[in-house]
Every structure is written in C-alpha cells, then in structure tokens.
Design a protein that fits this description.
By secondary structure, the protein is α/β, with parallel strands linked by helices. Helices cover 20% and strands 33% of the residues. The chain starts with 8 loop residues before the first strand and ends with a helix.
Length: 504
C-alpha cells in the first residue's frame, strides 16, 4: 500500500511530477509535487481501476496509464473521459520538513472558465444517451449547470459501456451489472431526465424543437445530436442460412450470447477491430471461429502490414481460422460458402463490416451533412444552438487537418464534455487528440492520434514479445502511435500531440 501519507513523508523524498502511491485511513492515495504545490487524490482510476501512480502528471493533471482518463489534482474531478466519476481529494500540509495528507475535502461543483459574461441556455436536450450524450449531461452538472437536462434515446437500456459489448461482456468474463456507464439513480439524483425507448422523428433546428414518434413535441434552449452510427447490414443469398448478428447494442450482444449458448461454430464476417474482438470473445466461450475478410491482412489499413500479421498470428494461436481475400457468397442450412468455393459450417454469423453515421434526422432538418453531420471547431452545426458529437459528427481536426469523422468511444465522450463547457461559456475549439484501445485476449492495443495514411512507419521493440510501439509519420509530423504494454509511451505521445496542436 505504500507509506501512510497521513503520518507524513519527507518533503525532500518527493520528486516533482512523480506520483507517490500511499494510503490515508486505509484508502489508496496519490501524493504529487508539482512545482511548489502538493496535491493528494485517490489513487485508483474510476473507469476500470487503473493505477494512477503509474500515470503521467502534467501540471495539475494526472492521466491514467490504461485508457488515458484525466483527473484534476486540485479537486479529484474526472476532467477527461473515459472516467466519469471523481476520485477523493485531500488537504495537504507542510511542516517540519515533511508533507502530510490530512482530511478529505467536501465536493463542490467545478467552476466554469468563462471568457465573458455568459447566460447558459435554460434547457438542454440531448438526442442519444450513449457515451457522448451522457458526458454532455454529466459535465453540465459537474460545472454547476442548474437548467433542465434531458437525455433521449430509442434504446431502453442506455446508457451503457458499449466497448464491452464485443469484449469482456460478450466473452462472459464481465457481468451485466457492470455495464451501465452511470447508475440510473445517480442520474436521477442529478436531476437528469431520461426519456428512453423514445424515438425522435423530426427536428426543427431553428426553433430547437423535436417531435417524438407519438406526435408529442419538446423545445429546448440548446440541442446536442449524439445519435451515433448504425451497423452496415448485409444480405447473404440462400435459404435457411445461419442467423446474422451485429454488435452495436446491448440487445445485439445478448442475442449473440444466446446463440452461442447452444452453438459449436461461428463465422465472423469482417476482420475489423469489432470483428476480431468478437472472434476473441467467442473463442473464450469455446466456439470454433472462422473469420472471413476481403483484406489480405487484418487491420492492415489502420495498423500496417507487420502489425496486421501479428494480430493474425495472435488470433491463430488461440484457434481462430482466417479466410482472407474472399467473402461469403451464399448460405445454406448450418453453413456458408465462400467466393473461393470453401464451405464453412456455422451455427450463426456475426457481421462486423463497418457502420454508417446516423445523419437522417439532421439531414431532414436542413443541417449541413457531408459524410457526417458537419460541425465547426466548437462542434456546433450549421444551425446556432444545435451541436453534434460522436460517430455522427464530422469536425475540423487541428491534428490531421481538414474535416474528419472518427468512430472512437473516448473521443465521443470528450466531445460531449467540450460541448458542455461551451454551453457554460467556456467556448474553446475542440483540439483533443483521439485515443482508443482494442482488446484481443490478454493483449491490449492502445492507439493515440489518427493516421488515415502515412509515408513512414517505425516500429520500436518486438511485436512477438508484446512490448513495442509503432509510429506513423507524414513527412516530419507524427500522426499516430500504436502500442502494446507501453502505457507511459502512449501517454507521452498523446501529450506531445496535444502540445503540437496548441503550439505549446
């Protein structure tokens, strides 16, 4: 547990920006010296329990080594997704050459940094209660917003931890009880209205008025569109073929689990991240799994050929069989036939061949749509007071240049937090660097930045040793870093990219 920080530690023993893990009253606590200031907060990330002592300190912020959540060292607030809940914050005293962590601080709403006097909208309607939409609501309350906040979603199970639908939950190693992003009771206690199982059929962007499928209307001071994306659905010719599943909602994941319970073999169409995570989960459940994909190597377009070969070998070592450079042509009773003539037995199919942004509502409302809902640097659409975030939004990235649409869960959350700050008067361009992680058995691939293409790829370390990083360059600019078990390097790359964008 480390030293008892309540009993004090020598001031000279604290190295600047190097967290010291200890405890106070039996609770894991982190003590940090930053310049002439000393901070103490809870030592465990509230996302997945990452050890903040192994994280990266930057001024008055510490970043979790696992999934890059950010916490304020002054207050313990979770100020950067994917963590949504604060950690404890403690008073720190210096006397007689020692530093003591004393009493726990009471919680107060975080102040909003307003560049000028600002009156927030009287109400905020959020269409989409996924990761991004939920973060809008939670961040508004964290910043002290007292107006009405309404979360709307056609999915009656929302909000939940969507990445786990293809990872631990699908594999059967994580219980259903762990899936909610935030407890319903917590949302209710923060006076966040939930309208779940409701579909919005029309948006009047000028009046900021929405119409539900039952014909009723609601008007808001501001609207945030966070509808996400819908899976690309496929048709396989043939009669009485295996059922086809997708992985997008909790109901989707539950349907796969139900099919897997009485099955022996599955075919996964698509060697994407979602397809391969699904393959790993089904192998964990003991099924025979075949992956069919058009690409010559899995994930080559995103990670490059060497990384793609490693990912293939990793899955093959766990029993997955690949059929690449081909596709499913027809289906029959308990089997599919590939274009190259191979026949694969299958009790069911999982299709992971991509998604399309849910832009229908925005397009019908007359908002600018071009391969996504077009927003400005503040994530505001072509209609004032209407914002768009997450998988459906196409935004101007300072990191890559030009408009981009990136389907990253953490990015959607951080965009939601940014919109909340804008609504509270802290209007700044969104410049966060994208981050995601992908789990394959006991191997996690962390990816920071965004590189749709590159002209130079540098790999440090050995993929086979599960200790390496890959750096993707365009000219002299570092676009992205993918890494395995190099958490510190991943954090440092993220911070360096942020500073590059901001000019710091």
């Amino acid at each position: 547990m480390g030293p008892d920080l309540g009993a004090g530690v020598p001031e000279a023993s604290l190295v600047e920006n190097t967290p010291l893990a200890g405890h106070v009253g039996g609770e894991a606590t982190l003590l940090v010296r930053s310049g002439n200031e000393y901070f103490a907060i809870g030592a465990t990330c509230t996302h997945y329990g990452g050890p903040l002592a192994e994280g990266l300190v930057d001024g008055a912020t510490v970043r979790c080594p696992w999934h890059h959540a950010k916490f304020c060292l002054r207050t313990g607030d979770a100020i950067g997704a994917p963590a949504l809940t604060e950690v404890a914050s403690y008073e720190v005293e210096r006397r007689d050459g020692k530093v003591f962590v004393t009493r726990r601080r009471d919680r107060v709403a975080a102040p909003s940094e307003r560049s000028a006097p600002h009156l927030p909208p009287p109400s905020v309607g959020i269409i989409g209660a996924g990761a991004g939409g939920t973060c809008v609501a939670l961040e508004l309350r964290r910043l002290g917003y007292t107006g009405a906040v309404t979360l709307i979603d056609r999915d009656g199970d929302a909000p939940y931890d969507r990445p786990n639908l293809s990872k631990d939950y699908l594999a059967g190693t994580q219980p259903r009880e762990s899936l909610p992003l935030v407890a319903r009771t917590d949302l209710e206690q923060q006076y966040i209205e939930l309208l779940l199982g409701r579909t919005v059929t029309q948006l009047d962007a000028t009046r900021r008025r929405i119409t539900f499928d039952d014909g009723t209307h609601r008007e808001f001071g501001a609207i945030v569109l966070a509808p996400g994306a819908d899976p690309v659905r496929i048709e396989v010719p043939g009669e009485q073929g295996p059922p086809i599943h997708y992985v997008r909602s909790l109901k989707d994941s539950d349907a796969i689990i139900k099919s897997a319970a009485g099955a022996q073999r599955a075919v996964v169409i698509g060697a994407s991240f979602i397809g391969l995570e699904t393959a790993a989960a089904l192998r964990t459940r003991g099924l025979e799994v075949h992956v069919v994909g058009l690409e010559p190597r899995p994930l080559e377009r995103v990670l490059g050929g060497e990384f793609g070969d490693f990912v293939r070998q990793l899955h093959e070592s766990h029993g997955v069989v690949f059929h690449l450079g081909t596709k499913v042509a027809t289906a029959g009773l308990k089997h599919v036939t590939l274009e190259n003539g191979e026949r694969l037995d299958a009790d069911f199919i999982v299709a992971g061949v991509g998604v399309r942004p849910a832009t229908g509502l925005a397009e019908a409302a007359g908002l600018a749509v071009d391969k996504g809902i077009v927003v400005d640097a503040y994530l505001e659409t072509s209609s004032k007071g209407v914002f768009a975030i997450g998988d459906s939004a196409r935004w101007p990235s300072s990191h890559t240049g030009g408009l981009v649409r990136i389907e990253h869960w953490v990015l959607a959350q951080r965009q939601g937090q940014a919109v909340a700050r804008t609504l509270m008067g802290d209007r700044k361009p969104f410049v966060d660097v994208p981050f995601f992680w992908s789990q394959h058995y006991d191997i996690a691939i962390n990816y920071v930045g965004h590189a749709e293409q590159w002209d130079r790829l540098e790999i440090d370390g050995k993929l086979a040793d599960h200790d390496c990083s890959a750096r993707y360059w365009v000219g002299r600019k570092l676009m992205a870093v993918a890494s395995i078990f190099r958490d510190r390097e991943s954090l440092e790359a993220e911070l360096a990219m942020e500073r590059q964008v901001s000019g710091a």
